[in-house]
Input
Amino acid sequence: MNDSTAFSRRWLGVGYSSDSDARAAGAAAADSALRGADPKLLIVFCSDAYDLEALLEGINGRSGGTPLIGCSTAGQIAREGHGDASVVVTALGGEGFSVQTASAADASERLREAGAEAAACAADDADRPHRVLVMLSDALGGDQQEVIRGAYGVLGAGVPLVGGCAGDEFKMQRTFQLHNDRVHENSVVAASLASDSPLGIGVRHGWEKLGEPVLVTSSGGNRVYTLDDRPALDVYLERLGAPAEAHTDPEAFNAFAITHPLGLSRRSSEEGVRLVAGADFEERSLSMIAEVPQGGLAWFMQGDDQTVLKATDDACAAAIEAIGDNPLAGVIAFDCAARRGVLGEGIADEIERVASHAGDAPVAGFYSYGEIARVSGVNGFHNQTLVVLAVS
Output
């Protein structure tokens, strides 16, 4: 199945397949996405249950070797379908785009260097007035803010970053990144997209602050040990009035935590959100999906399906507003897997909302283990957030 919009110079197409045969699924999705002349880039979001090498063979066999980046996910997004066990291919092409791609291996051992290496593909790509670097990485390999810092060190403030972290359908064991005809792990892949026409970015999370902030008095890596000089888990449970079962049962705690992230104070007006990914009931600490800096302020936050869906509307509206009066070619959404967990069956409603903002333009995306959006300052890694890229 397909959904595509073509203009005189630039075009974007999206193809979707849930065929259980990897090669056939890749070929079908690529066929549907490749709806214009002169394809410049393919972006692939897929289930990790596929034979990924066969999937790429199916895609590349149809595209003739068009540059490609992609990743495994915690769910795929397209008008034609959503959820698991499928593949979504986005194709961009025409005279109005130019593209460079890159990959950086062994990212967990050198996060900042890997970010810089992947971003280098955009360093000399300034032949068109509008640019963005799309990055896909492995959140299981360490603090992804370091990847962002590496990219920022190469590109500075002039090139926005968007993207997300690969998933493995909530197993949290291993994720995959795709570059051209290769399947990678523990890597960062990137595509520099330069366009004659504007590219809009919208970023919203939908979580609301509760009460007064707390000071992060002890943290390290992806763990928070104390808040206001008390065990972090105790403060978290008390301040949020968590149900009794969340005090002792890991599953009950995780079910509660998915709707109660931490908010971080940053030097800019931007607020960061961090998913509370688990608890150590003996150590009384919190496990996070990314670094929470020691010495900083944090807020307890809450939300529900309605606040999450409002954030969906706001992110889409902001991205599309940023392209002005230019016709919308398509929308790509990088949506947090934890937001999917909050919505449950309501993800169909979310995708309908994204599609309604896009009108007749194609829609693609995936559920991620962390979102990338750097539009100002050096910070750009997010949790429980929706990032929307509007292409005109």
Q: What stands out?
A: The radius of gyration is 20 Å.
